[in-house]
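REQUEST FORM: STRUCTURE PREDICTION
Request ID: SP-0412
Submitted by: Lab K.M.
Chain count: 1
Length (residues): 151
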Amino acid sequence: MGKSKSKSGWEEFSTGLVIAAVFGILWLRGGSWIWIFPAAFAGVIPMMHGLRKALEERSGRRERVESRTRRPEDSEREVLRLARNHGGVLTPSLVALESELSIAEAEKVLESLASRGHSSVEVRSNGRIEYEFAEFKPRLESPHHPPGEQS
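STATUS: Completed
RESULT:
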């Protein structure tokens, strides 16, 4: 079986408009109120749904273009700032929540930083994947003993 392609928002809008117009003309020509119901249900409602869908498609396209123009260095810098602000531990969902990145983009940046040795990946017992940035983790040093000195 072939895969059916769904209509775009503008196709749904124009189809609904044509159907509403046909039933509207029948109502005007015949004067019977019976044509109003098919005009509304087969024409106006699908037309409004198509308009909403077309506007969503348009805004989604704009978001994809904006994300393509973001430089990888900017995304990395943003993730590093978040790591510093969160004690050196991040998850993709936390990055997506507190940045302009999607979860998929956040995962890609975090994986890239980990593969280049800037962070480590830890899988917790509950299955949560965390990226740890050692240089941003709080140090447990005593103020009286320099690092590496035994007491």
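NOTES: The chain has five helices and three strands.
Reviewed by: T.R.
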